[in-house]
Amino acid sequence: MATTGKYLATQEEMVEARLPLGSRDMCSKLLIPLNKCRQETFYLPWKCEDERHGYEKCEYDIFLQRMKKMQEMRLGQAQAIPAPQ
C-alpha cells in the first residue's frame, strides 16, 4: 500500500520540484513526474494519463486508510464509553 513509503519523495526532491506544502504527502514521488509531464505537454488532458491515474490511485488508497482508521477510532470510543444505566 501507499504507507510503505515507496511513494514518498525526499525533502530535497520535493523542494527541487517546488511542490506546494499541501501536496507533500505519501504520494509525492508520483506527483513529481506527473507535474513534469503536465508542463512538457502544456497540460493537455489526454496526455500523462498513466501518471495521473497512478497518482490518483495512491491518493484514493490514502483516503481509504484514513477512513478505516477513523472508523476504528469511533468504534474504540463507542466501546470505551459506558452505557447509561
From TrEMBL:
Record-level GO cellular component terms: mitochondrial inner membrane; mitochondrial intermembrane space; respiratory chain complex I
Top-rank lineage group of the source organism: Eukaryota
UniProt-listed PROSITE patterns: CHCH
Compartments where located: Mitochondrion inner membrane; Mitochondrion intermembrane space
UniProt keyword list: Disulfide bond, Electron transport, Membrane, Mitochondrion, Mitochondrion inner membrane, Respiratory chain, Transport
Main location: mitochondrion
Membrane topology: Peripheral membrane protein
Family assignment from sequence similarity: Belongs to the complex I NDUFB7 subunit family.
Role according to the record: Accessory subunit of the mitochondrial membrane respiratory chain NADH dehydrogenase (Complex I), that is believed not to be involved in catalysis. Complex I functions in the transfer of electrons from NADH to the respiratory chain. The immediate electron acceptor for the enzyme is believed to be ubiquinone.
Name of the molecule in the record: NADH dehydrogenase [ubiquinone] 1 beta subcomplex subunit 7
Species of provenance: Physcomitrium patens
